[in-house]
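Many introductory courses stop at the sequence. We go one step further.
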Amino acid sequence: MKVLIIDYGMGNLGSISRAVEECGGEYLISDNPKKLEEADKIILPGVGSFRDGIENLNLGGWVTPLKSYACDKKIPLLGICLGMQLLADKGSEGGETVGLGLINGQVQKLEPKSSSEKIPHIGWNNVDKAKEDKIFESIPDRSDFYFVHSYHFVPKDKKDILAVTPYCGKFVSVVGNDNIYGTQFHPEKSSNAGFQLLKNFLNL
């Protein structure tokens, strides 16, 4: 099995590739969309702003082939942090920007509900399952994962919400639709639970 980790200039590629390897996957990091032909699984990482992210994907020629491989060929895709947000129809960071549209919804800024809630949301927080899914196999409900973000994904359809996290009221921390998944947290930085989620993705 080969996991393609997309290099579009905005991901922590080193930690993700090491985690994939530790979880038993063979990885390929590439900035060439033609390498999608070799992929059994695809990871879209991401650190930074929505607008910069989608601009970089467009400049790299990723958008159309990525949609084709994920939607038509049903290659499993995992978006991590900004990578999850880019799955949306649009984002508001830096002005409204069109996203990949792989999971319907929009990305909005987190709004604190109390003086103790700081933005960005940084650190460990629990993930509460909204429904059972194979991506959570062997992961106890309310497990802690590591977050760093100021925006959150608001899915259009509740059926795409797989888990939520209690911060700024409550935000969606895992989305999923068929073979397409996104995590707002960083599984590669989330110890045993994060590595188990990556193993589950590799086993899809």
